[in-house]
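User: Predict the complex.
Assistant: Input components as received:
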Amino acid sequence: DAMVIQNPRYQVTQFGKPVTLSCSQTLNHNVMYWYQQKSSQAPKLLFHYYDKDFNNEADTPDNFQSRRPNTSFCFLDIRSPGLGDAAMYLCATSRGFRDRGYEQYFGPGTRLTVT
Amino acid sequence: AQKVTQAQTEISVVEKEDVTLDCVYETRDTTYYLFWYKQPPSGELVFLIRRNSFDEQNEISGRYSWNFQKSTSSFNFTITASQVVDSAVYFCALRRTGANNLFFGTGTRLTVIP
């Protein structure tokens, strides 16, 4: 089955220690997104890639970076995690015609704990 | 500006009851897209439906149905004969045409009691 895969499902990191979360997809979608979801809140978009074009949300902290080495993979790097960065991180993909409003398909998420 | 309001924070129903989840949206765009997602305890957001602003036909899929009314800017979701497996947080979302990001509502937590 075509799908969005996130690894690891659970990640524990120390305060200030860089961490990388990964996402891969077999849907061959050209848009990939990273969302942060804190407890009992709606997902919040951090950034997305439209093909190789990186689009950062205005309020995404500089501490969060992303890489997309190819169509299938996308990484979220948190350079110096703080306690406030503990959250579920969701990766999503969609087809990329902006005027068609295609739905996004989400991975299972990575729950990040910062100690 | 875009805004999605899900006024019901939590709903509890007894199994087999019908339940409607409300969604009201605000946008100045004439063309836009509306979505419903289900988030079970496992955490994965599951796509349920997409509707564009030009299509006001109601839709039924099994026990699920959606009522889109542009005149009241509402896109409500009804589950008929609810089951325990329907217990989840349900998010309504809006996407502007020409944009890639989704504006989510705050979600409604549905608990179906056996």
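Chain A touches chain B at residues 31, 33, 40-43, 45, 48, 50, 55, 57, 88, 90, 92, 94, 96, 98-99, 101-109, 111 (CB under 8 Å).
Let me know if you want any component modeled separately.
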